[in-house]
Structures are given as C-alpha cells and as structure tokens.
Amino acid sequence: MERIGIIDIGSNSIRLVVYECTASGAYRVIDETKESARLSERLDKDGRIAESDMQYITDTLRRFQLLCEHHGASRIRAVATAAVRNSPDSARIARELTERTGLAVEVLSGAEEARLGFIGMINAIDIKDGFVIDIGGGSTEVLLFRDRAVLKSVSFPFGAVNTMKRFGKNGDIDEAAAQAIVRTVEDAARDEPWIASAPGLPLVGLGGTIRSLCKVDQRDRKYSLPITHHYQMTEESVDEWLSRLAGAKLEQRKRIEGLSKDRADIIVPGLLILHTLFRLCGASHYVISGSGLRDGVFFETFRPEAPQFTDVLEHSVHNLLALHPSVSLKHVVHVERLAMKLFADLTEEHGYGARVGTYLHVAALLYRIGISINYYNYYKHTYYLMAHSRVNGLTHREILLCALIASFKSEKRLKPLFAAHRDLLAETDFGLIVRLGALLQVAVALDRSGTQPIATLSARAIGRELRLVVKPRRAWDIERRELQSLTKDFGKSWGLTLQIVESPSP
Asked: Which of 203, 197, 210 is nearest to 284 (CA)?
C-alpha cells in the first residue's frame, strides 16, 4: 500500500488531496483540505508577491506536509497554476517555496494545466466528444476533444478571482462591468477560431465556479442524490441562475443555500466567463465534472505509463470492487457471467437493449460489496455504497438503477427507495429494476455455495414457463434448493414459472 499527496497551489485556493493506493492497484481519496488563499489578489500590479504572502503560502504548504506525514504519504507532488505562472517572478517564487519547504514545486504551463485537467475529467466521465472549460481563480482553460483525445486547447489569463479584482467593486459586478467581462472573453476567443468550430457538443465544466452553481441548483431543486459529478444543466437553467446571482448583492448571495460564503463574491464573474464561452462554443448543455486537475496530476503520478483509461466504467467498477476485498472475486465474476447469459437468452422476452444489460453487469459485480460493512442486511449497505459512490461512466439515474438492482430483495422493500428518487427515475424504471433484480437473484442462487458448481446454463421461455437447463460440474444441492425458493417471487416478476432441468455432467 502507498499513499500519495497532491498539492494544487491555485489562484483561488491551495488544496491538498491524499490518495491511498492498495497493493491490488485500487485507489481512493482518504483526506482532502483547502486554504482559501486568493493568490491572484495578493499579487501587486507588477505581478509580484510580498514577503508576508510568501510566508503565508509557506506556512500552508508546511501544514499540508504535516498532514501527509501523519497519513504516511511516501510521495508528495506540488503544482502551481496561473497566479504563479503569470507572475514575472514565477521562477523565484517556485524556487523559494522549494527551498523553504523541501517540496519540488512545479509551475504548470497553461497547456499542461489543460492537459492534466482533461485527464482527470476523461477518466471519470464516459464521453466521446465535447469541450472542457476549467475556470480557476487566475486562468480559464478551454479544450476541444474528439474520440476522447485532445484536439485543441488554450489557456486564457483571466479567471474568477482576477476578473473580480479587475472589474468588480466590493464583491459586486454592475451592468457595465458585466458587459466589459463579456467583451474581454469574446476578444480573447476571437484569436482561437476553433472554439466556434464544433457547435452542438456538450460542455464539461471543471473548477469551483460550475461546481458551486451545481450545488446551488441541486439545493434549489431538492435534488435527491447528493452527487455533483456528472450532474447536467441546461443552457436555460444556467442563464436563469446567472441573472439571479448577478442581480443580487454580495450579502444576499451569501445567504443562498448551497453557495459557500468564500465563493459568493467571485461566482458572478466566473459565471459570466462560463456563459460567454458556452455561447461562443455553441454547446448543447452543461456537464459538471467533479474530477479535474488534481485527479489528472494523481493519475500521471500513479500510472505514468498509462494515465488515461480506455474504459471508464469498467475501471471504476473494478476499482470499487477491489476496495472491498471481503468480496470473493471468483464468485461475483461467476454470478455476472450467469446473469448475463440469462439476460441474453431472454432477449425476446424482455426486449431490453445493450445499455440495460450494462446495468445488470454492474449490479452483478458489485451486489456483495455491502458485506465489507456488515454481513447482516448487507444488501442495504450495498445500496448505500453504490448510490453514494461515484460509479464513473454512469449517469445519476443509471447509478440509482444499478444500486437498486444490486440490492433488490422484494417489491415491498423497493417501493420506498424508489419513491425517494422520483425526480430521477421514470415510472417504467420500477418494472425494469424488479425484472433485472429477479434475474440477478437467480444468478446468485446458482452460486450460493461460492464454489462455482454450474459449468453452463441456458434459459428459454416456452409459453408461460422458463426452462433453465443447468449443467453442473459437481454437486449443486445447495444451489438447487436456493433456486427453488425463488420460484414464486420470480413468477411474480416475470410472469414465468421456473422449470429446472439438469443436463448430465461431462
């Protein structure tokens, strides 16, 4: 096991994330903290930084080093972005911070910041084409990607903090200042014609501005799933929030639910930048990413030979599975194989497409992770872990579907869980969960002993009967008994009576 600390010396805040990497190759965040430094505000008109502010940064980095030491981090990687990069004193600042703390402080170029932010995002969202916009405190990175590869990128020297410093007054932006910010963005984008070259693509937003907007919108909607990553917003919704927030005074914004007080003064310039770039890109809608620069730095540090994943969902599922070593990998892989065979054999009966099959695939692999908390009622823990973990590669609705299928026990137990998420689930989803949950129960029953006694399985609906032809490789009395106990409930779910036929062993 190894622990790695990633420090991001940003223009608005200095952040630390500590990752734990297991011997099996899995990873997770075990600590995170930040200091609202506002480095862009601390630079003088010549872009230089006072000694008192250098000491402040030094003290912050030393506290972060101490946290890393307490966690047993064997490696710490510290990167600095726009506030340091744009200063004519950048080399001296980085050198002095290194001398004072012993950390090798890297000053990222705009291109490097865009690339690392992209890696963090693309490893967490299954998206093929789009724009990425990362609004920091002192810079804004814009990137166009196709087939999950970067085509173009640019780093603009304006962000939420330095834009407020330049155009705002007492934490507010008046109408004239708002128009000036829009013109600044438009003028900068005019030199990058590719920004307008691919209309109709989604815009993936990184950084505190869009994450803060997401939290405000979710609180306002009483959104039932407390996950910001992969949340989606329409152009109309963002326009409405920009109008509401820009029309409110700073003290009023501080009282808005979901908006942190240290973000209230810079949310409007950040949204003006975001809104203008969205319009110039001709984007279709907004997608919020909870992963960005720090994640990209981690992946490059942890997996330098291949920092970008080829299959986001599979990597995420197997990473989550590996973080729960109490689960027998042989068992869940076998259960998944049986479940997917049942799904394929019953295609004519259910008519579901391949994407629905993916829900069963995910649920089968993760259905047992709840035992890492407690064996008793483990399916309840499985539901919570899946619904409140980031299963990357799935939308919020799909995360809920997979969690409910994985933890399915009965329609009675499903109803209150389903009702709690009616804002995300369609009425037809109830039947889908019941049917796939019942298929998963059959697959689990066929390996009740955990010894994989079933060599092959086939299923065929004949009239109102489902004939299961089972070829065992060894005695399967435990599985047969478990399967027979499901006959009644399976009949209710599918309208089919289970008929078990044993094929002779080889």
From this structure: 203
Specify the long-range contacts of residues 488-494, CB closer than 8 Å, at least 24 apart.
489/410, 489/438, 489/441, 490/438, 490/441, 490/442, 490/466, 492/411, 493/434, 493/435, 493/437, 493/438, 494/349, 494/435, 494/438, 494/466
Match 């600590």 to its residue by tokens. Answer: 31
The residues pairing with 15 across neighbouring beta strands, listed in sequence order, are 8, 34
Q: How far apart are CA 160 and CA 210, in angstroms?
A: 11
Contacts of 358 (CB under 8 A, 6+ apart): 313
CA angle at 20 for the pair 18 and 21, rounded to the nearest 5°: 135
Contact by Cβ (8 Å): 87, 113:
no
Can you tell me the distance from the alpha carbon of 293 to that of 211, in angstroms, rounded to the nearest whole number?
14
- Closest residue by Cα to residue 85 from 165, 5, 10, 185: 10
Residue 186 and residue 427: Cα distance in Å, rounded?
A: 44
Left (φ > 0), alpha (ψ -120 to 50) or beta: where does 262 sit?
alpha
Backbone angles phi, psi at 466, to 5 degrees: -105, 110
pLDDT averaged per 10 residues in sequence order, the chain, 506 residues: 96 94 94 89 78 92 97 96 89 94 96 96 97 95 97 96 93 96 98 97 96 96 95 97 96 93 94 98 98 97 95 97 96 98 96 97 98 96 94 97 98 97 97 98 98 96 94 95 94 94 76
Which of 470, 458, 466, 467 lies closest to 495, judged by CA?
466
Q: Whole-model pTM?
A: 0.94
CB 103 within 8 A of CB 174: no
Helices (H), 346-390: 347-350, 354-366, 378-387
Which residues touch 49 (CB under 8 Å, ≥6 apart)? 39, 42, 43, 87, 89, 93
Q: Quick one: DSSP state of residue 49?
A: B
- Helices H / strands E in the chain, number of each: 22, 14
Tell me, what amino acid is at 84? V
**DSSP code, position 25:** S
340: left (phi over 0), alpha (psi -120 to 50) or beta: alpha
Opening angle at CA 200, ends 199 and 205, nearest 5: 95
